[in-house]
Amino acid sequence: MTKKAFTLIASFLISYLGANAQSSANLVQYINPFIGTGAVDASSLSGSNFPGATTPFGLVQLSPDTQDNPDNPASGYDYNDKTIVGFSHTHLSGTGVADLFDILFMPTTGKIYTTPGTSENPETGYRSRFSHSQESAKAGYYQVKLLDYNINAELTATEHAGFHRYTFPQGSDAHVIIDLNHSLNKKRSYWSCRIIDAQIRQVNDRTIEGFRIITGWAQLRKVYFYAEFSKPITSNEMVSGNHIYNNNTIVNGTNIRAALNFDTKDATPLLIKVGLSENSIANAKENLNAEISNWNFDGIVKEAQAKWEKELDKIKIEGTTEQKQIFYTGLYHAFTQPNNLADVNGDYMGADYALHKAKDKTDYSTFSLWDTYRAANPLYTLIQPKRTAGFIRSMMRQYETYGYLPIWQLWGEENYCMIGNHAIPVIVDAALKGIKGFDINEAYEAIKASSTVSHPGSPFDVWTKYHYMPEDLQSQSVSITLEMSFDDWCVAQLAKKLGKTADYNEFMQRSNNYKNLFDKSTGFFRAKDANGKWVSPFNPLDYGGNGGNPYTEGNAWQYLWYVPQNVPELINLLGGKAAFANKLDSFFTIKDLPKEVNGNASGFIGQYAHGNEPSHHITYLYNDAGQPWKTQYYVADVLNTLYNNSSSGYSGNEDCGQMSAWYIFSSMGFYPVNPASGIYEIGSPILKKASIQLASGKTFTVNTKNASEVNVYIQTVTLNGKPYNKTFITQKDIDNGGTLNFVMGAQPNKRWGVAQ
Amino acid sequence: MTKKAFTLIASFLISYLGANAQSSANLVQYINPFIGTGAVDASSLSGSNFPGATTPFGLVQLSPDTQDNPDNPASGYDYNDKTIVGFSHTHLSGTGVADLFDILFMPTTGKIYTTPGTSENPETGYRSRFSHSQESAKAGYYQVKLLDYNINAELTATEHAGFHRYTFPQGSDAHVIIDLNHSLNKKRSYWSCRIIDAQIRQVNDRTIEGFRIITGWAQLRKVYFYAEFSKPITSNEMVSGNHIYNNNTIVNGTNIRAALNFDTKDATPLLIKVGLSENSIANAKENLNAEISNWNFDGIVKEAQAKWEKELDKIKIEGTTEQKQIFYTGLYHAFTQPNNLADVNGDYMGADYALHKAKDKTDYSTFSLWDTYRAANPLYTLIQPKRTAGFIRSMMRQYETYGYLPIWQLWGEENYCMIGNHAIPVIVDAALKGIKGFDINEAYEAIKASSTVSHPGSPFDVWTKYHYMPEDLQSQSVSITLEMSFDDWCVAQLAKKLGKTADYNEFMQRSNNYKNLFDKSTGFFRAKDANGKWVSPFNPLDYGGNGGNPYTEGNAWQYLWYVPQNVPELINLLGGKAAFANKLDSFFTIKDLPKEVNGNASGFIGQYAHGNEPSHHITYLYNDAGQPWKTQYYVADVLNTLYNNSSSGYSGNEDCGQMSAWYIFSSMGFYPVNPASGIYEIGSPILKKASIQLASGKTFTVNTKNASEVNVYIQTVTLNGKPYNKTFITQKDIDNGGTLNFVMGAQPNKRWGVAQ
């Protein structure tokens, strides 16, 4: 055997074994799509996740809805509900506001109903009872027995298509209901959901196509579908409002449904594959043909599982089964969006509502940036660098057609939900970490425009004139002042990298604006009016929502800690490290709640509310105060008590990956308090081992000894074998590859991580 | 000189002289755009025409709006109003329902207002007073002095672009307001107008672009614009709701406006050219560049006039100046729509809301078919055969994407206004007259689908089951039964031509369904319920509107006459010619009105209401009853008393050319009572001469001697020199070319036109 031949064979064996190892890793087994699908009780928040079938970053999320015209949870599925209204093809994961729910299919038998009925009286419509004991889900697959009809319904998905397998009882009165009136709650006036027009057309006895045009949380969505059936449609009933047309070929209208009838005497399942497009029926058909060319349902399930396995494989962990379930379901939730809305041919609808063509065949949307810039986007930056470049190219498209980067982008359109301009930290973080695939100069132009061109929530003329947001000119003024100061700091960092000194100086100046709202008399950031007068009365416990109050979905206690760009200066404002740590102690222990708590605030530890994003970085701030063991304590407390592997596994809305990303980082032992700094604060690792596979081919591994719910305190740390006393690691440390070892114990090691 | 050279010169001279003759005809001088722009008083209906600048069948109608959020008149301009709110780029001509009004521009001086103010207090907004004494309009041109600002505003247009010339007083506080919130009345709940999103962007100091996405009478319209200014914008104020942004580059929102500021010290006018597109800003720019390449405002006016001259030239008439003004303004109104919505590159939005490409670069819309199939479409068939083919190709596109032909198509979308499926007579008429340019077999497929696939207002399963429309299953049942019977007759005629005998027989059978609603006991068509019981109480004077009553915008008297496909059978139903004529006599003389008359019924002669379409053919029915002199009397009465050349020149809404087409045909002496039969009933010509230039090159000329308001009765008729005693002519007579001579007198010649 020559050396060359040996090398070849060895190389083969290595890749074979590697592939095998990867395959045998079977990380998808830990995905539990039911995590986050229900609240513990009516007083709690659901994660707002959905249990149905989807692929990483795909357009389609084919999932059961337990609610017609859903509102809360925003996913349309509540684990505590007893009936299912049907399976719609698009869903949001973890948001606080509902939308999508497009193209609902529901198999039934017996009498034909084309309206869903009520949850109180499921027998008055097509809705069916179901039981969790006859329901199952895994990545890319969902199954439920519809008890009222004795139908076993199974779902899987590709990026642009849903695949249904309905096993009916033997008979001749099987139906599939298509309901294009199923949408978010049309009565909630502030989203003003309205179906503008819709169509269902029977093309032939095995093909249905159509669309709906709808305005809702997303201002305008056009959703086209093309559906193929494995059995012939024997007859139909098409319905528009109260009008019923029998065996019509088409129905158009704003409230349209159809019942398709099938013969199921042969007992073989009915298969339905449904392509979707935001642009045209022709594209929906092209999308379907590109992704599901046969009738092999199980094959598509396997493909979906393989796609998930490939994404999960980026971080391999050791830990308890529950930890693995939370961790990998967390990755699954983080990778459920942003969603590539572009058709396979690259067509997409821009933020200008016009048809455009994406050269890269991708146009990502669902940018819940106020949530995700904190940890979900840094997670993508770390292990999804190519996708991150795609996200940025997609966000840049909004800048080009809409004048500024996304704030909250849904279905390619700005919905102005929440505050700040947090595409900026996302892009700056990626640029500073050297991610390729977007033009850094154009990105800077977009960032600067988003920081200077006034738009809803961002009146930059006010910002420039007052150096804070006066509450009488801009509601949510304290939160915006704090978060905008951080965004400005991010702009400055990229300006610096690009050598734009004047810009750097100007934006660094702006990044200090938060100081103008620090009220020494109360020790809190507090609203001022345009005359510079503190707004009274002031109670640091009082909550704001999304307008009409200086604090966004939080109170003065929660927003006191939001200076991630300059924690040392925040410590100075609060009177030094000791005072700062004392105030943190109070924060985590004061249990008083005002009469009205914003609904998004949940998962309390004192005033800390892990259920909503403003709190997410706060446990880590003890590090800078010289008391890292308290960071360790509270981080471990959150990891161990506010996450679990049940349907109520999150302490609030999962928020498009942010709640999961917090766990993913924190469970490995570090978290990006300042998400654009390349610095990760060290907390309290709970996983025995975590190996991050970097795109460079290098691996960064964290090993943790003795971690447990009791052993939450760091005893010693080594980085690449050398003792490590810093309370943070850097992106460079990770990029270099290597090993970070923790040894944990039940008592704080107050010498570790503190300047000696 | 060789013979060849002589021929060339002669040929040159002929075309030179021909061109000169055409030019010297100067028919556009007779267009008075103010006709139809106002009602006589508050109790009358306006023609709902607009006085602004447009080109034949163009996308853009740049015209002043006197009303903000217009409702009635639907054109946005009421001649009786005292203030103008601005100049918007799209308008409907003559409709009963308002929509469009896109991209309003208004020049002002002094204090900046970005809301229009009220008509009661014009000084509280950008609105300005104006006076008709300082206002003028001609084809393709409009001018008004804005008295509050001392600004002379002039407008002209190309197919896809508006061109503004604003002469400001010398100064430095000149403004142009752009208001994208200007729309139809948003409070009229049944159209539910809502602006979904809009954008104004300052691209540079001479360019503004943007769009608005709006749902209204048309379910969804996307209107993009690209505007170039001849002077630099010195500063701007961009406004979203109550938020004002100074010198911003962009504003997005649902209620956005902008003030652009200019220096006008040099006293030269500010020129603005604005391209429009229904698809994208890029296309709006391309449209503008294709049509207005320079800053020659007067040149564009001349081009617009030449375009109109070319269209008017198809019929040359002699008569009084008032007759010429009514006639040519009628042609102008008839040729104002349908509008080609396609971009110059052929892009258009289909009825499926997706982007499509038209090979012929045209996609016509604004099909007010319930009105126009009666005479406006036959007029197009006669003198606009190429356009007619384009209209049909465009209507076929709705069939392809929407399943059936248009009922009332606005902005490429079906709005289901009015009843029937009157694209059918339009297409059948064109097919039977041999118009080329569309596929007759595909057209038949579309016609048959539109007559068999149930849709709103057309439940064909009910039609097939009951052989009439029961009022309890389909409101407006009498009108629909009558009009659907006619449409069915039309389907049968095309089936016959294509040799589809079974279809012919079936549809001929269906065309008799009207008989099932003839109530012998009352002598009227009357509603039945699904049990076959006459609906009571019944009063033939009682009016219906657009639902909730068996009669559409009319009463039993007016609908009694609607069997154009078989007048002899209608005569039989009514008891023979004498009884029929007596009933007609009653119809034209009974003056009783019920308490509530539908608002569209106006222009009364007894129960006859020329202000709305159901009456339009009725004066001609005496011909079939053997009393043609009564046809002559009433036709002349309508021509002479219900049309004039003033702002209140029509007796009701002009209805997209139908009211004008009635005059155009009738003033020449004939009218298509059955618009798909190729037969024109002879009435009472009032024009001294009318020459119709046919596409074949032939000419059909009508000469009339002694016509006057007194001499309304036909004395003798010759066709091509031979005495002519029939009360109708045929399309073949016209196609052959030739001359029809009338001699009129003050007394009926009761021997003419009557079987001897």
List the helices and strands and how they pair.
The structure is a homodimer of 756-residue chains.
Chain A: H1 3-25, E1 53-54, E2 61-65, E3 83-84, E4 86-88, E5 104-109, E6 128-129, E7 135-138, E8 141-146, E9 151-157, E10 161-167, E11 174-179, E12 194-204, E13 207-215, E14 221-229, E15 235-240, E16 243-246, E17 250-253, E18 256-262, E19 270-277, H2 281-291, H3 297-312, E20 315-318, H4 321-334, E21 339-340, E22 347-349, E23 355-357, E24 364-365, E25 367-368, H5 369-372, H6 376-383, H7 385-402, E26 408-410, E27 413-414, H8 423-432, H9 440-450, H10 460-466, H11 477-497, H12 501-510, E28 518-519, E29 524-525, H13 556-559, H14 567-573, H15 577-587, E30 604-605, E31 608-609, H16 628-641, H17 658-668, E32 670-671, E33 679-682, E34 689-693, E35 699-705, E36 713-719, E37 722-723, E38 728-730, H18 731-735, E39 738-745
Parallel strand pairs in A: 35-39
Antiparallel strand pairs in A: 1-2, 2-4, 3-6, 5-11, 7-8, 8-9, 9-10, 10-19, 11-18, 12-13, 12-17, 13-14, 14-19, 15-16, 15-18, 20-34, 21-24, 22-23, 25-26, 26-27, 28-29, 30-31, 32-33, 33-38, 34-35, 36-37, 36-39
Helix pairs in contact in A: 4-17, 6-7, 7-8, 7-9, 8-9, 8-11, 11-12
Give me a quick take on this structure.
Chain A is built from 18 helices and 39 strands.
3D architecture notes:
The structure is a homodimer of 756-residue chains. In chain A, helix 6 (376-383) crosses helix 7. The longest helix of chain A is centred in the N-terminal third of the chain and has 23 residues, at 3-25. In chain A, the strands form 11 sheets. Chain A has a 9-stranded antiparallel β-sheet. A 6-stranded mixed β-sheet of chain A has the order 20-34-35-39-36-37. The first copy, chain A, has a 5-stranded antiparallel β-sheet with strand order 5-11-18-15-16, with no helix packed on it. Chain A is an alpha+beta fold and 756 residues long. Chain A has 18 helices and 39 strands. Chain A has 2 domains: 34-312, Distorted Sandwich (Beta-galactosidase, Chain A, domain 5); 315-745, 2-Layer Sandwich (GH92 mannosidase fold). Chains A and B meet through strand 12, strand 13, strand 16, strand 17 and strand 27 of A and strand 12, strand 13, strand 16, strand 17 and strand 27 of B.
